[in-house]
Amino acid sequence: MNIGLLILLLLTLLILVFSYLRRARSRHALPIAPWDHQASETGLPPTYPDKESLPDLHPGHPDTLHQLVLAFHLCNLTIPVWNRYTGGHHPAWRNSTSSPWFRLDPHILERAHTAAGAIARDNEVNARQEVESVFRDFIEPVIALQDGAWPAGYPVKKCFLATYNLLKGILEKQDARASAAAFSLSITQSLDCLELSGLYTTEGLQDLLNEWKQEDSPGSPTKIHR
Asked: How do residues 36-51 score in pLDDT, each as one tens digit?
């Protein structure tokens, strides 16, 4: 037999075997979530984009003060997600390869919750100035999240944006509708963060909110402890 023909037949056989094995492997491969690499960076379990969000679970108190306190409480529950992500270090990003690095204070959420907590507990008007100061520090990171310059994992994004909207709701105090919308969005984002990070199951969140609604005075400032 012609040696050239034999080599051609062997190569053809190898190609067929390789194609078969590749198809077989792809049929048994597990689906990979688009942000699994982000989850590994944050130390959080993988989450999937088709996971149901929970916008319909929050009580939606008509009183914006009650919404403020619930939003504050849920934001506090997301803190472990943020702490695991930062590890005490400054998250950093830049908008382009030629732009300077932006480094974020890893304690920014703690500062925000301290300022918001003073209002949630005691409705302190004097705390508004501190809220305004911290809120300004959120603007640049929020833009970076929206533009994709800051590649934080999905639960971390939800955690950060929930606190941002908590502060925004406080500063929109003169506009009750805008304030209520910001608090409602903060509540939804915190619920998403808690579920997607694995800190709570869907059922656990429902139990948490049911317990909140069953309080004699839901949203009472006395429920907040720091």
From this structure: 333 333 333 333 223 3
